[in-house]
Amino acid sequence: MRNSEAIWDCVEAHAADLIGLSDRVWGTPETLYAEYRSCAEHNAMLRQKGFRVTENLAGIPTAVMGEAGTGGPIIAILGEYDALPGLSQVAGLAEPRELEAGGNGHGCGHNLLGSAALLAACALKDWLAATGTPGRVRYFGCPAEEGGAAKTFLVRDGAFDGVDAAITWHPNPVTRVDDPLSLANMRLDFTFTGRTSHAAMSPHLGRSALDAAELMSVGVNYLREHVPQDARLHYAYLDAGGSAPNVVQGRAKVRHLVRAMQLHDMLAIVERVKNVARGAALMTGTEVEIQVVSAVSNMLGNRVMETTMQAALEELGGVPFDAADRAYARAIQATLTREEIATPYKVIAMPPRFDEPLCDYVVPLYPHGEVLIGSTDVADVSWKVPLVQALVATHAIGSPGHSWQITAQGKSPAAHKGLVHAAKAMSRCAEKLLTTPGLLTEAQAEHRARLAATPYTCPLPAGITPPLQPRPAEI
Known about the structure:
475 residues, alpha/beta, seven-stranded mixed sheet, 13 helices, 40% helix, globular
């Protein structure tokens, strides 16, 4: 029996348990740094499967790490389990219907992400023991990818020290190796403080914090013309100072999000945004307090890791969807626009196939399609160790990220098939790194060369801590 078949058998041996874990996490959707139930489920599964568990990783109570094996290289497999606010949805439907009014939902598939990663770790653990291969697997249960930059904090505080390579994945409409592209970003809160007064009788005595926040927004909007074309600037008011128009508002708070393709560009734009805020405060006679909330880097690629994962995916083939999976996917696609369905094909440089509800093939490496880039804290791990991320089909082609459609499909048989498929790809990639002579060494040499050209600078300012949430009393 070939090694690949042996490690895939190890995946199948644990698949039912980890599919159950995914469905339980789907049923308790928790947002950034409040993933206490989800983390507890992963913790319990790690212990059930015989891992050595470290809780409260880097001082984050919803981060957990499990290790198995002895000696040899250390392969990290990264999982996530945070949800998104406002995306509650009944599972299995092809129409929007909230499960809980205003509730959270797994609209990015992280219930699948964490469970498949842990499934891959379980398979690698068993394979290491059965073959006597020197090596260790570490499963990292990571919270707060959605805006909380937990992995950046974990990297900064040494959680990945000693790791030799890292593997992860993400649910996607198509199966492929992810392009090593992401936007560095930083979230900052700007709190303006002025003086309240009667807006009619004594406006001259007031200093409007709301005016300052609005002037800042105007200044940042003018700044958009003078930043690199790949940069992105977003903002949201967190506190507009109140609802009474006859009061000069003495306090206002606005959050700005700055993104760019390169970390150094992002940091330079952040300084300019800060100066805009200071100018707005000066114009209005107010004070401004600036607080960094989170920050992540751009992704650092590794061709050795990427070609290794591509080989594992091609060996495995596409996700084995069936007729029932395709029927449900067609029902989901009926809620989408043609543009939404066509978008994933633009990314992989293929003409749209409107009669293809699910992707059951592997896209070639580096398809050079249209570039649509977001941000992720996985990027900071890529600067610490050689890293690769697979994308595996789990939902109907065209399903928008962060949507009710993704939540609805999160417990479907198609999603479960994608979960198992992702675990097989990741465990096979890890096996290749541990058994192919010189492969891991080559990946590490490439990583060192990239760092020599562009050294890593953690984007988090010294002293900043993650915005931890209190543990619910019932947990």
